[in-house]
Amino acid sequence: MMRLAFYAPMKPPDDPVPSGDRSIARGLVAALEHLGAEVTLASRFRSRDGRGNPEVQADLMAQATSEITRAVAQGKTAGWQAWLTYHNYYKAPDLIGPHVATALGIPYLQIESTRARKRLDGPWAAFAKAAEAASDTAQVIFYFTKHDAETLHCDAPQSQVLIHLPPFLNRNTLPAASDLTGPMLSVGMMRSAAKLPSYRIIAETLAMLPDTGWSLQIAGDGPARAEVEALMVPFGDKVRCLGALDEAALREVYRTSSLLFWPGVDEAFGMVYLEAQAAGLPVIAQDRPGVREVLAGASHPAVQDGPAALAARITDLMKNPAKRHKAASEARNMITQHHLLPAAAQVLRRGLAEAGVQ
């Protein structure tokens, strides 16, 4: 049995606050366990500095020293054979894993690391250097999207192995399929910087739809909820905000919706797209880096074509049930082939083998 240490410097997988990062971390642990590995959460130390404060970074780096000592002792007792870190980047670098792996003499691997050499100067300089050093140390880096792969390939040490790990759902099989007769659905946390731009595009798009009985449900909550609700006021009871939903409730909403509408501004790729397509929902999204890699179908509206192109795509799908069902079938086939836990586990197995861990 493989004995593996797992670490997520931005948010541990057992954090009580839901997020995409937490879901991905939990899925990674599940995929490793699917291989028969014994996975230990090696540390809950959070290194994130979201504001770019050199004093905060210096303090966190100092705190990491004692955490390294603790983790080395734990690793010796547990007999870890490799250390895997999820999501090392300039705002939340892995300050622990490389040092522990070196002290224990075990392979160090990363999953979804981001290179950002432009951050080596400026308010995140210390953390950016730490993130780059950690990435340089990794024997294997798994990447989720081709967009991330570009900088990883450009800056990789000669001996480093880079492996594509398609984003995946933490499940072995598909959920029940939607009958595609319900309202449209949007799913996204309500945060000003990251998500509000997508909600603005949604509102602009809805204003262009023919007044022919459409409706939209929105699943999500957050500090920008009042702004989101204000954007939706012109549409009256055609738009309903459901608030934050747990996993079971969200699965039921997917099952009773007709399509997912989420433009995808600044999404790395978006777990919501995988969840919706697993339930057979056609997706209305803009053609953006990362996002396009998790969408079924050959083409999606270009960003420069704006809300009008999104409205045209929605109108076409809503008027043509046959197109909706064809898109649903394509979506579920894609998820089955590339984005479920068993497929991810086999990719992780290959990467561990590259690092000498069997």
Automatic annotation (TrEMBL):
InterPro entries named among the record's database cross-references: Glyco_trans_1, Glycosyltransferase_grp1
- Keyword annotations: Transferase
- Answer whether the UniProt record assigns the keyword Transferase to this protein: yes
Query: Does the entry feature the keyword Transferase, yes or no?
Result: yes
Look up the coiled coil feature and give its residue ranges.
Answer: none
Q: Which GO-annotated molecular functions does the record name?
A: hexosyltransferase activity
What's the name of the protein? Glycosyl transferase family 1
One Pfam family hit? Glycos_transf_1
Q: Which domain of life is it from?
A: Bacteria
> Taking every annotated instance into account, which residue ranges of this chain make up the domain Glycosyl transferase family?
208-333
